[in-house]
Amino acid sequence: MPWYAFLLAPFALIFRIITGIRNFLYDQQILKSFKSPIPTLVVGNLSVGGTGKTPMVEFLIRNLNGDFELVSLSRGYGRKTKGFLQAKSSSKAEEIGDEPLQIFRKFEEKVPVFVSEDRVNALEKISKISTKTELVILDDAFQHRKLKGDFYCLLTPFDSPFSGDFLLPMGRLRESRHGANRADLVVVTKCPEAISRTQKEKMEGSLRCYLKNGIPVLFSKIGYGDPYPVEPTKAFSGSVILVSGLADDRQFVTYCKSNFRVLDVLSFPDHYSYQKSDLEKIARLSEKHLGQKPVLLSTEKDAVKLKSLANQGFLGEIPIFVLPIEAKFESEDKQMLLSYIREKFRKK
């Protein structure tokens, strides 16, 4: 936390009062929450971005798709459209958002992907459009109190857990730490590769005072796959210019520096919409390192947008590669997570 953060404490207090009143009204049913006609699994967090929600949603889709007829629903953050939309092969990031597009392209025919600001209305529509749906996975709906979800999976990153964070604008929390008591399960994400039992116990202890009794606390890591080209004919040189729009790109950059020759790093805000000036900068960097045959290495959601611009001729012949990311669990935690969810929804 920067030294000046405490100067923002009065504003954080005002924010706490506002969010606290809102949560109180929902908790006391003065403001009404609505149940979905389809069972819902909510994946969310208490903080602003960077907790690994999309890799977690993809993990759940991969591992639950054989048990349930699934649908993915999110707000579609960063899109330039509004309302209820279903992803299709012609969809673009500006229409449905970069992360929903990423999920759709990974699972296409297996799992329908929808976006809407109004999750309650969207679920009503999904129940009519996709009548065989047995479970909807909602991305980033922990604060969407208008919906009463059936199961809440709360994510918090190892390096900045909600138990040590503060409300906006002093910290990164969207609501009080006590909002965690709505969770049915907590996953500590982005753990170090060699996390010890002592570290786990310390982390779990810091979270427990905000959770309901008996709530499982599990631990996951970020796993990286092999880089693959956006255009199959391109060869990977190993010399990379990193381009990413992430809430927190530290693990991404660290991993790449350990495994590739990183020539330059361009970091942009989360869900960034690339401009022509950004592409001109990338082109200049590529020209600067021309002798080392550089390629662009990016995240899956950023590569979708970069490819679209490359197809318009803005990036010339610079090869674009994707570094796939996924959530990884130790065997015991993976089994507990999936068993807990399967039991919950099979009972329904």
Tell me what the structure shows.
- It is a single chain.
- By secondary structure, the protein is of the alpha/beta class.
- The chain folds into two domains: about 5-225 and about 330-345, 3-Layer(aba) Sandwich (Rossmann fold), CATH 3.40.50.300; about 230-325.
- It has helices at about 10-25, 55-65, 95, 100-105, 120-130, 195-210, 250-260, 275-290, 300-310, 330-345, and strands at about 35, 40-45, 70-75, 85, 115, 135-140, 145-150, 150-155, 185-190, 215-225, 230, 240-245, 260-270, 295-300, 320, 325-330.
- Strand 14 (about 295-300), helix 9 (about 300-310) and strand 15 (about 320) form a beta-alpha-beta unit.
- The model has no long low-confidence stretch (mean pLDDT about 90).
CATH topology grouping of the largest domain: Rossmann fold
Instruction: Assign the structural class, choosing from mainly alpha, mainly beta, alpha/beta, alpha+beta, or little secondary structure.
Output: alpha/beta
> Distance between termini?
43 Å
Major sheet strand order: 4-5-3-6-2-8-9-10-16
Could you tell me the radius of gyration in angstroms? 21 Å
Count of individual beta strands: 16
Main sheet properties: 9 strands, mixed
Categorize the overall geometry.
globular
What is the CATH class designation of the largest domain?
A: Alpha Beta
Model regions low in confidence, pLDDT < 50 over at least 5 residues: none
Please trace the helix and strand order, writing H or E for each element.
Answer: HEEHEEHHEHEEEEHEEEHEHEHEEH
The total tally of domains equals: 2
Mean pLDDT: 92
Query: What is the architecture of the largest domain at the second tier of CATH?
Result: 3-Layer(aba) Sandwich
CATH-assigned homologous superfamily of the largest domain: P-loop containing nucleotide triphosphate hydrolases
Strand content of the residues, in percent? 15-25%
Number of helices: 10
Helicity, as a percent range:
25-40%
